[in-house]
Structure formats: structure tokens, C-alpha cells
Amino acid sequence: MAGIDSHTHLFAPGQLAAREQIAPGDRTFREMYANPAAKMATSRQLLAALDEAEMDAAVCAGFAFSTEDNLIEQNEYLLNAAKAAGGRIIPVATVNPALAGWERVAHWAIDNGARGFGELRPHNQRWDPCGPEARKLCGLAGDAGIVLLWHCSEPVGHRYPGKEGGIGSAELIKIATAFPRLPMIAAHLGAGLSFYLQMPEVRAAIDSVYFDTAAASLLYDEESVTRLVDLAGPERVLFGSDYPLLSPRLQFQRLSAQLPEPVREAVCGGNARRLFSDNGKK
After folding, report:
1. What CATH number is attached to the domain comprising 171?
2. How many domains does the chain have?
3. What is the pLDDT of residues 60-117, one digit of tens each?
4. C-alpha to C-alpha distance for 103 and 167, rounded to whole angstroms
5. Stretch 42-55: mean pLDDT, rounded?
6. What is the DSSP string of 104-155?
């Protein structure tokens, strides 16, 4: 079965080469990538990983940089890579609503083929995910018919680089409730958000929120994804590896073995195909 990896990351080659120069000026980048052993990848490497996994395509984000120059370099590379990849790379651009004039970067990305914004790390970038700039971002995305991908930060458990700084469950429920028709993806199984779907009023309020499985094997037990499918429904779960942190092939094999058909078809490709085709740039 051909599939789609709904959560991967790319960097511009110049940013790979300049990791030591970027790290001092960006606290979150330093935490996650200053170590030379931290994995970073280009489009060529991602496409090779997709070939190895026998997968059709990947949803690709960059990194939530704090400065505009790094955001622009990354978005230019990502969007050009997507154009060159013939549909195999579905680009999710990055913005920083804490910066003056961020809307200009966002509009440029949409005009050049971005299919979403993310992976959004509001607290790392120092903006309120429920505040005025976040609402502008949601309105802009809604007008363009694109998706928001949020880094969801689980408030408990072991520490790791990049754990904090995303959006919390209560914050995501609040902003998703305010924009009920805007598709949003809660990364990393939603960091516990799915539990609240058992509350009928929450389930009804956030029925446009999807959940991806990125890094599930590093965070949760072997039954976590099947429980997520039970809570959210198979139509709202997306397979994601978090490449290059983890191998798409190994994560795809692991997840596929846990899910029966037709759930496997939906989670491992069908849902992403529908989500990004229905909500592509208008």
C-alpha cells in the first residue's frame, strides 16, 4: 500500500552547513540542533527515505526559527523543493507571528505553493497561540484554504530537546473552537488532547482537528495509536514519522502492523490525501 508520511522536516543546505553559526542566535534551534549528532535532512535525503519506505509523498515542514532571514531561506528552499519533487513533497511553510510584518512572509509562502503553516511552536517563538496574531494567522489560513500544523507539548513525562514550546491542550481547544472550519493537525498524538474528545461538547467543537503519530514510539506505549484511533476516529488520525528523527520505513511498518484494513489505508495515506487535496490553495 502506498502511503503518505504526514510529518517530516527539511532544512536548506546552507542552514545545515551553518548550524554552528545559527545556534547562538536561536535558543530553540540551539537546544535541538547544536549537537552535530542531531539529524537534519535535505529534500534529496527525504525522497530517498520515501523510496526506501515505498511511500508516495510526505508533508514537509521546516523549523520554527525566530528570525525572518532564516524563515525566508528555509521557506524558499522548501517550496522550490516541492515544485521539483512532482507532488511528492507537500510543503508546510513556517512563520513567526511575533515578528513585525510576518504576514508578508506568510502571503509570499501561500502565493508560492504552501499547503499549510507549521510546525508551529508559539511559545518558543514568543507569541500567544490564542492571541491577536494567532487569530490573524488562523484567518489568513482559513481564507487560503490551508492547514495549520501545531507542535503539541505534553506537560508530563521525560524531557528531550524540543519538548516544550508548542501549544497545550487547553490552548488548542480554545483556538480550534474559535475557528471551527479551519483544519488543524495536533502533532505527536495531540499531547493528550484526544482524551478530551470523550467530552461531547469538546468533540463537537473541534471536529476539524486531526492528530498525527509523529515520534509516537519515543513517547508512548505500543497501544497508543490504536487508542487514539478509538478516541478520535480513524478518519482523524494521520501517520507521521518525524523524519529525519525517525525512519519513515520503520515507523510505517510498525504502525501498519497495528491497524486493520481499512483503518490502515485511512491513517497511512487516505486521510492526508483528502485533507491536503481538499484544503489546498484556492
Report:
1. 3.20.20.140
2. 1
3. 999 999 999 999 999 999 999 999 999 999 999 999 999 999 999 999 999 999 999 9
4. 20
5. 97
6. HHHHHHHHTT--EEEEE-HHHHT--TTSHHHHHHHHHHHHHT-EEEEPB--S
Tell how far CA 61 is from the center of its chain: 6
| Cell numbers found for residue 103 | 504576514
Using CB atoms within 10 A of its CB, is residue 227 exposed (0-12), middle (13-18) or buried (19+)?
middle
CB 101 within 8 A of CB 136: no
Contact partners, residue 148, CB within 8 Å, separation at least 6: 116, 117, 118, 120, 137, 138, 141, 182, 183, 184, 185
What mean pLDDT, rounded, does the chain reach? 94
CA–CA distance, 74 with 119 (Å, rounded to integer): 13
- 165-174 pLDDT, tens digit per residue, is 999 999 999 9
Q: Which domain holds residue 157?
A: 4-278
User: From CA 22, how far away is CA 3, in angstroms rounded?
Assistant: 34
Q: pLDDT tens across 117-173, in order?
A: 999 999 999 999 999 999 999 999 999 999 999 999 888 888 878 788 999 999 999
What is the C-alpha to C-alpha distance for residues 121 and 94, in angstroms, rounded to an integer? 10
H helices within 54-115, ranges in order?
Answer: 68-84, 102-111
